[in-house]
Every structure is written in structure tokens, then in C-alpha cells.
Amino acid sequence: MDGITPPYRVNELTPDPRVSFDPKVSGDYVKYAHRLAARGLVNSSVGGMVIRVPHPDYEQGICYAKPQGISLEEVEVEDLVITDIPYGRILAGERATTVGHQMNREILRLRPDVNCVIHLHHDETIAFLAAGYEEFRSFSLTYGFLMQKPAHYLPASINVEEDVAPIKTFIQDTNCIIMRRHGFTVLGRTLSEAYHRTCVLVSEVKRNIIVETLCAVNGKTPEYISDEDLAKMGTYGDKVMYPELIKRA
């Protein structure tokens, strides 16, 4: 990493007998993958999700992922693979991961507080930004409490799935990356939190489209929640939405 030639290749098969699939983690992965698909958020085999779990022999933990060529809608427990985080070598399972897995691993490497990453090619997000809007705004109380940090927008010319270098410049200050012409990537301390943040994000994008459409028809001005209010909501996010996470800290 960081200019040092890694000792392993991405997707190199290096089975580790100390690493095995946890039925609970594997089951949760498939359950939430199918929940995302049931909401209509999955397109073909693109997009993905990773879950980090601790392991005594891997300082940064290990992560569960789906292999390339299988969608979140289709994935089953027997399809999953486990990789390390620094290099992306396959510790359990036999199939290669997607190119986007290096983005997910880099996020986990840089954000030890994050244990789940969800990346989706969301139709409405891509369409809204392609229509000329620079960013979406918040209209709801739930978005600020759940997301807790402002979204970071990337221009279409930057693809952090293929080149992860820019991630280190912004990842500490966001829980959501908006990728023009591409979709979004959402971070969570738990699988549940990442899923909830994904749901509130797609709802907020939908609200933007509805509000902007209605205001264009009736000549009114949208009533946004200010950035200052969103920041204040973020500081109370755990107390309002996740008091259990406070108890664990």
C-alpha cells in the first residue's frame, strides 16, 4: 500500500484454514442483499455490498463479498467469498470479486469505524444529477439523523472503483459518496445502519424529484432543510436513531 509493492495480487486464491464462513454473517448478507433487490435498487450484476467482521489473525478484519457475475438479487450463501482488506486475496471461496471491491476495501481500510459498505447504481440518483442538478437537498427530518455527515459528490470523470487514490482525501468527512453517472456508495457501522442509510438516501432523492416537479408546476420555491440544521441533526443522530450504538461505544 501507499507505494509499497503488495505481497499478494487482488483475487489471488490463498485459502486460509483459520478463516471460515459464519452462518449468521452469511445469512445476514443474503437477507439484506435480497431486501435491497426487493426495493428495486439492484440493476443486473453491478453494485455490491461488503461486511467486515473481526478476526484474531487479521488486524483490519476480513470481509464478506459477492463474486463478480452474480447480482445482489441472485446471490446465495454458497456464492459468497471472504477476502482480506489490504490486498483483496481470497481467503475463503473460489470466485473473483468485482472491480468495485477494491473501493469497498479501501473504505474499510481508511475507516475502522465502518463495517458495511453498500454500492448501488441507483436509477433516480443518476437521472436527477443528469438532469442538471448539482446535488440533492434534504426535506425530511430522518435524513440528517441517519446520515450524520454531508454527502460527498464526485464528478463523472472520477471513478473510485478503478482508482481508489482519491478516497483518502474525503472519506473521513462523509458517510455517503454520490457518483455522477454511476450511483452511490453508503457507509455504516453495522449492516443495519448501512441499509437504513441507503433507504433514507433513495427516499430523499425521490422527494427531490417530486418536490422539484411540483414546484416547477405551481411556481413555488422548495423548502429545504438548511445545511446548518442538517449538521446539528447529525450530532444528535445516535441519540435519536441508534442509542444502542452509544451503549456499545
UniProtKB/TrEMBL annotation:
Keyword set includes Nucleotide-binding: no
Origin superkingdom: Bacteria
Signal peptide: none
Coiled-coil zones: none
Domain Class II aldolase/adducin N-terminal residues, every copy: 27-209
Keywords in alphabetical order: Lyase, Metal-binding
InterPro entries hit by this protein: Aldolase_class_II_sugar_metab, Aldolase_II/adducin_N, Aldolase_II/adducin_N_sf
The UniProt record lists the keyword Lyase: yes
Pfam families named in the record: Aldolase_II
PANTHER family: 3-OXO-TETRONATE 4-PHOSPHATE DECARBOXYLASE-RELATED (PTHR22789:SF0), FUCULOSE PHOSPHATE ALDOLASE (PTHR22789)
Record-given protein name: Class II aldolase/adducin family protein
Annotated organism of origin: Sediminicoccus rosea
